[in-house]
Records
---
Amino acid sequence: QVDVAAMVQLFGYVDVTDTGFIVAVLSIAFNPLFWNVVARWEHKTRALSQVFGSPHAACYCLGAVILVLNCVRSHCFTEAMKSQPKLEGWDCHWTYYSGLAISAVGTLFVISSFLALGFTGTFLGDYFGILMEEKVTSFPFSVLDNPMYWGSTAIYLGWSLMHASPAGLLLTAVVAISYTIAVLYEGPFTEEIYRRKQKGVKSK
């Protein structure tokens, strides 16, 4: 069971009306919304592929924009943590190194996921018509679904613990929620794309 009193005490350290905190929340929520809207628009209209001359060029451009937005999100996250108090009981070596270990595991999942999928596989290439031959089942996909998302969440969790930051922990929860919602939308849509591909192959 969750200790509600402890949670209330923990988040009593967080000023949710702070401008930096609000900006961080908005940047976290905006990113998956942005790439899902743009990718679905591209899948429906092929407008980006036409503008950039090819699906690959368009996908690389969107990927670059997503990377920049992720850097902005990380900057806003860090600044929001710095502007709010630390939890003194957590400001110790044990918490710091625990956070470092969690971030390392998250980084492993993110990097290995990218290497398994490639650039276009990572950055929504299937929405551009750049489909993989088969579903990736190697590590880290053999360990958990959506390792890129949960690895990224783990990085933020570790970063928050390293800074003994209640604000960081609350923002990490926002990251987890935003990714959970993204998965609910992306999963069925991507499965439908590949179902149509298989149906097209069988009909030939």
---
Amino acid sequence: MPWPSRKREKGAGADKKEPDAKVAKTEEETQNKKEEEKSTKPPAGSSKSGWKNWKKTKESDSGGEESKITYCHWLLKSEPESRLEKGVDVKFSIDDLKAQPNQTTFWDGVRNYQARNFLRAMKLGQQAFFYHSNCKEPGIVAIVKIVKEAYPDHTQFDQKDPHYDSTSRKENPKWSMVDVQFVRMTKRFIPLSEIKTHHLAHKEDGGPLKNMMLFVRQRLSIQPLTQEEFDFILSLEEEKPR
């Protein structure tokens, strides 16, 4: 990959437009600042009708049985706009991923232990949303898949890399990364503000986004999704933007 450490973890701040997370194709770092990412104020209205329609469809498909709460999908945040970190531009947009050989790259630079553990939990073939963060309009732009499970992140040993970790040893690496490959663009851009509207409504009516980590641990640039969360968000691409 021609650019070093596009996936940032360190010192992430809030997204520019009513920040929700300012982490790049990387993550917050061990020294996570405690400022929470702010989210765009959701537009007026409720998502209850949309949730009920989605729920009705899901119940007809599964006989009304609720799926178990397991994480089998992911949300990966990356910065689509230029930003220097220790003299290195950490920008990495979905277009940058599509420009890679075989539209595949490694997801390096994660320096948060919980996010690292999520990386290590990823399985071959699992899908993830590619989320543009720390930009004018944060949100989901595409779907990617895991094409190589966790292995040592080489940037932790590179003194020229902004994510160099002098405390990590090659015989026992602290940090891991995975390889991801572009699958497709979402049928439309799904903004953070829209997702938050559904999240707030689901907190009231028990919808699938009620506990979505995007609003519980906003600063993590790698976040797990349940099947219900993934399916519901995917269903939004069929709806007209609010």
---
Amino acid sequence: AYSTEEERGARAVSRYPVPNKKDLPYDIVELMEEVEVKTGFLPNVFKAMSHRPAEFRAFFAYYNAIMNKDTGRLTKADKELIIVATSAVNRCLYCVIAHGAVHRIYTKQPALADQVAVNWKLADLSDRDRAMLKFALAVCQADNITEEHFQELEKHGFDREDAWDIGMIAAFFAMSNRIAHYTDLRPNKEFYTMGRT
């Protein structure tokens, strides 16, 4: 039913009310049902964002633009790893848990996202991945981005368009992390076990 009512007895998805499915616009319900069929459950971010339909549409349109594009050198797993690393710095429980799960699914590596979430500098990463995360975290932490940052990426096969993609994912998820923070967005229980075995 996608409503706050289904959460009785358990911690709420968000501190904001989740509209009942019958009260949501058709296009939002259609997207939510498509995601639920594909994944077997509906990630709580869809429920929480449905509180504001216009913002829901804008949020997921931009998410799709950066996460599902077919160009560039970033793999889906790379993008998820960027999200885990930057969300850990931003202390976003929802995004670390949810995107760590998706990373595990893409890579079949049950430990790497956990390592990155705790301390990316000690994680079992390639030099390429280290350069990618170093740039993403510089954006995440609002460091002064210099030509040296771009040159370091270029040494590992990333061009300026890839740098844009890395930076845009870090920036978008900084916003997403803040939304999750003030709404008290809770990860779905399914995310904790996905891709672990």
